[in-house]
Give the backbone structure.
Amino acid sequence: MKVSLFITCLIDTFQPNVGKSTVEILEHLGCEVSFPTSQVCCGQPAYNSGYVGEAKQAAKNMIQTFEDAEYIVTPSGSCAAMFHEYPHIFKGDFQWEERARRLAEKTYELTQFIVEVLKVTDVGARLKGKATYHTSCHMTRLLGVKEAPFTLLSNVKELEVEHLPNAQNCCGFGGTFSVKMMPISEQMVDEKVESVEQTGADYLISADCGCLMNIGGRIERLGKSARVLHIAEVLNSR
């Protein structure tokens, strides 16, 4: 099975190990992974800030970049959700709407792809300790991926997964929200860190690097002990 990797800006810039882990997991599961080098930002920051015209330019580049892909997989529920937003952005534009729809139909978040397309629930991972999982807003509410991460984590050997209190609450990142509404964002992430601490978890796991960067930064600043991991890193642990 041929997979085109959509790496995302945050992973490319700040957390390349997540990208490496993603490739290694997919290859371990028998996929042939390619990396289209013309990919850039998906346009989400501009779109969420109301700059639709600028977002369309980024979207057109991504549609052209991944148009010939068999499957598109990304270790980010948020960025996958943005690809699924493209048909709405180009609604009524007959040149681009159908191309955007085809792109969305073959785009998957990593855990979604493993469980729903590859039909794998145990990747053979092993990680000793207690973990809790943060469900990101875009991945659960926009993309609709809720169970796949928990299915895979439940089969990681020696890992105990503890329910995160107030798991449905946003961590306060929200892309540009954390910049524009910093005092509110700070209160939200403090609540999230407190919830993590209540679980006594050694690890905080999520599938969106934006959330992990936000929560992880606050954990470090407050001197807390939980280690932040992307789910790709967990699934690649042996």
